[in-house]
Every structure is written in C-alpha cells, then in structure tokens.
C-alpha cells in the first residue's frame, strides 16, 4: 500500500461547546482568548486550502485512561453539573467553574487525601491555575478534541501521510492527574499513546507551542518509547508554566535522555526558532522514530500577545517544509495561537508544505511498527 500524500484534516463543531467567557488572571477577571472563533478560523483556513474536513469518530474511554487518572476524568465530566447543584451561578453569581483554593502538597501532607465537601474547593483539586475555567460544554468539547486527534492518528495508521486535528481546547498543559493552561485533556499525549498501543515502535512528540508542554513532559518523562522535543520561551524569563520546562530536564529512569527542552529568548524570531527546529528534527531522525505527533502551537507569532517571540509566516512555512522533510507519518494537533489574524496566516503557511509534501512512502504495521 502506498501512503497518500494529500493532507487529511479532522474538525468538529463541538469545539463551540467550550465557551470560557473569560478567565481570572492574577485575581483580575479578563476577557481571555481561547474562544470559539479560533476553531472557526481553523475551519476557514482548511477550506481556503481545499482540504476536506472529516468528522471525528468516537473512541473508547480507555484511550483517555491510558494517559489520565480516572478520578480526574470523572471530576471533569461532572464538574459543571456539581457547580450548578451548589447554585454558584446564582450566589455569588459565577457561571463558570473557577478554582480558588489549591491543596499544596506541604499543606496536606499530614492529612489523608480527603475529597472536599465544598464544590468550590473541589475546583482546585485537579486544576493548577485560575485561568482554566469550566463552562457547561467544556468536557464535551475536550472529549471531542480527543476524538478528533485520535481520528487523525487512525487516518495515518490507515495510510495517510499527514493528518491534522483542528481542535480546541488545546491539551499540552494537562498532565496525568491535573489540568491547566487552558487545557483539560492532553490530545497530543493521548494520540502518542494510541500510536504506541497500535504497535508503533517509537514516537516523537514535537512541541512548537510558544509555551512548554509541561503536561506532555510529565506523562512521558520516565519512558523511552516517546521522545518529547519542545521549543518554547524560556520559563526563566518569567513565562508560563514558570516552574518547569528548563534545559536540564532530560528525562528519568528508562526515559533518561528522551526529554529535550530547547529554550528561546524574548524577541527571538525565525532564525532562532528554525535553528532549534533543525536540532529537534535531527534528534528525531537519530532516535529511530517511526511516527511524529506535532503539538502545533502558533503563538510564537510576533502579533500574538501570549509570548514575546517574533516568528513570521515565512518562518512557519519553512517549519512546515522541515517537518515534511522528516518523511515520517505525522499527526498535527492544534495547541496555541490566539491572535486570529496571525493564526489565519501562519496556519496556512505551515500546512501548505505539509499538504503537498512528497518523499518516500511508509506504512505503519499495526502490530510491528514501520515496514
């Protein structure tokens, strides 16, 4: 079987169910920018490129359980319903689930892990910040994003050369037993695990979001079958996720040497980004990788206020050619990218070379890896 070269894309209108209606940052309610128009821009770009939009297929819950803790998933599924039962939309008038208190490990180490009676307190058990709020449809939208990502993976397993999951909410800040950073379920990690479970020998997760994917790193930090390669703004310069994402985090145990964080400085643009991506591609090539999952953040753009980086559409286009040159089965999953004008231009720029990439054909054997 020859592997098809045309870009395959998966999109679902269910992303619209996630409507945060703002967030709380350093105690101040702000408008927020991880909003439904992002998903519509992705659809418009794909239509402009002539890429057919496929609907996601449903996948079993065990795909999520392979990455996330069952208790966190159960909480996310019922969080808004419990919030309404507590009548918080009426008093004090908060119609979104927002954490206000967090069980710091040192504060609870002398106590058994007790599930709090207060629904308001429960909001901080798994969430790591105040900016990641839960709306009535958040879980359904996040679950649909997982299904779209896994459908893209299935397309590649069935012979597609490149598949793109045009999803929101994003996922790379969500870990085994926590969520945050506007992320609830880790689409990229679930997808990488799905590939492994289907017999792919080793997967590279290439994360080019402006911010470190702390959740993806945590999930695979002690494993050798997934290489995590992240290019992001140096958290030591004061950027989210602040506490993790440094160059000396190299993996542990069986995963020692399989975690790579390449840091960018404020103001860095095309040259620094593409130099780092060239290094990432070399590591993937040398690492006996059989498939690639790209956490496709586009918030490195100069106009995007969520980072101090200055990557141009030309830089993203070159990144597309570099990823295509890996000549490996590739799944791209949308992460950040919040300035809608930049998102429109930069998404088209990076997808265009991937949608027309040639190269040798590969076939993934569902039980034995690459043939």
Characterise the protein shown here.
There is one protein chain. The protein contains 11 helices and 12 strands. The radius of gyration is 20 Å and the shape is globular. 34% of the residues lie in helices and 14% in strands. Mean pLDDT is 94; it is low at 358-371. Helix 1 packs parallel to helix 11. The strands form 3 sheets. It has an 8-stranded parallel sheet with strand order 4-1-5-10-9-6-7-8, with helices on both faces. The chain has a single domain, classed as 3-Layer(aba) Sandwich (Arginase, Chain A). The protein has helices at 36-48, 62-65, 70-85, 105-108, 119-122, 138-157, 187-197, 214-220, 270-286, 313-325, 340-355, and strands at 8-11, 23-25, 28-30, 53-54, 162-166, 203-207, 226-233, 259-264, 291-296, 330-334, 364-365, 369-370. The termini are close together. With 371 residues, the protein is an alpha/beta fold.
């Amino acid at each position: 079987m020859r592997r098809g070269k045309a870009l395959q894309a998966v999109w679902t209108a269910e992303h619209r169910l996630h409507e945060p209606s703002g967030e709380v940052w350093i105690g101040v309610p702000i408008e927020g920018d991880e909003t439904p128009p992002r998903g519509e821009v992705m659809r418009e770009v794909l239509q402009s490129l002539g890429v057919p939009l496929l609907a996601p297929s449903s996948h079993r819950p065990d795909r999520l359980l392979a990455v996330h803790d069952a208790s966190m998933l159960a909480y996310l599924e019922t969080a808004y319903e419990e919030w309404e039962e507590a009548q918080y939309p009426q008093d004090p008038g908060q119609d979104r689930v927002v954490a206000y208190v967090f069980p710091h490990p040192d504060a609870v180490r002398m106590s058994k892990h007790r599930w709090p009676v207060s629904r308001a307190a429960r909001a901080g058990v798994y969430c790591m910040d105040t900016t990641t709020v839960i709306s009535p449809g958040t879980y359904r939208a996040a679950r649909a994003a997982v299904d779209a990502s896994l459908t893209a993976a299935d397309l590649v397993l069935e012979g597609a050369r490149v598949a793109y999951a045009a999803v929101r909410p994003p996922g790379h800040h969500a870990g085994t037993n926590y969520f945050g950073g506007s992320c609830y379920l880790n689409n990229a990690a679930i997808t990488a695990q799905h590939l492994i479970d289907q017999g792919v020998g080793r997967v590279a997760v290439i994360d080019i979001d402006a911010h470190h994917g702390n959740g993806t790193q945590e999930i695979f930090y002690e494993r050798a079958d997934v290489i995590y390669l992240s290019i992001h703004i140096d958290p030591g310069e004061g950027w989210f996720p602040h506490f993790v994402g440094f160059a000396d985090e190299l993996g542990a145990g069986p995963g020692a040497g399989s975690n790579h964080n390449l840091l960018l400085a404020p103001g860095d643009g095309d040259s620094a980004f593409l130099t780092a991506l060239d290094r990432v591609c070399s590591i993937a090539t040398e690492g006996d990788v059989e498939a690639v999952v790209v956490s496709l953040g586009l918030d490195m753009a100069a106009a995007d206020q969520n980072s101090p980086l200055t990557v141009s559409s030309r830089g993203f286009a070159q990144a597309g050619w570099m990823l295509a040159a890996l000549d490996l089965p590739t799944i791209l999953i949308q992460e950040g990218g919040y300035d809608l004008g930049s998102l429109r231009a930069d998404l088209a720029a990076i997808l265009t070379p991937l949608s027309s990439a040639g190269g040798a054909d590969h076939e993934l054997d569902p039980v034995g890896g690459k043939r």
